[in-house]
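Because discrete structure vocabularies remain unfamiliar, we turn briefly to a single example record, giving the amino acid sequence and backbone structure tokens:
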Amino acid sequence: MTTETEQPTAPTLTIDELAARAGVTVRTVRFYGTRGLLPPPVLGPRRVGHYGPEHLGRLELIEELQHQGMTLAAIERHLRQLPPDLSARDLALHRAVVASGAPEAVETVDREDLDRRAGRTLSEEDVARLAAMDVVAPDGDGFRVDAGLLRLGAELLDVPLSQETVLAARAALVEHGRAAAQEMSRLLREAVADRGTQDVKSLSAHMHPLVVQALLTSFQRSLRQELRGWLDEGRSPGAGPAGSGR
């Protein structure tokens, strides 16, 4: 659902552009629309349909659910359980939770397929930045790609931050994420110390998406509070413009 700080973006993508961004065919987009998996587009001049970030986010979620082996009927049931007003960011978080239960999906692709999967034409500088983030790695004539991170990495290319800042943020997230995982693992081991191996595996599989969702939600709320406090501090009497040095 849309927060008070996130306003919906006006639909601007044609069906061809939406399909290209998601790495699927126009026929697939239309098929999902007829099944009710995608909301209808906003009709513009000449009744041309336009799609927005929420359509792209839902389409990517559908593709991820299929990648996890869910049937179309199961995906329909899954989507019906979600709030109808989920924002693109909410959908991305939900997709991250779904993908978190999958094994690492590292594939080797050529340059053309790399662009298609990223949903954009990547410059050589873009590829170098993605390599620095460990999202892609040169492999002969192609690239080894972490499919689960490529779309996120491509979105980070548009963030107005230096590469050094992005890498420092990544290092901080990895460090604290590993610490949280180790602590959670310790708690689970203590809780199931007297259970059999099969019970432990079953509990772990059940808990994994719940723990990831909890971490994402907690981090999202904490970050929002920190940013709000930073901005409020910048607006206080006698303070300089928000974001200025002190």
Notes: The chain has three domains: 1-102, 104-159, 163-234.
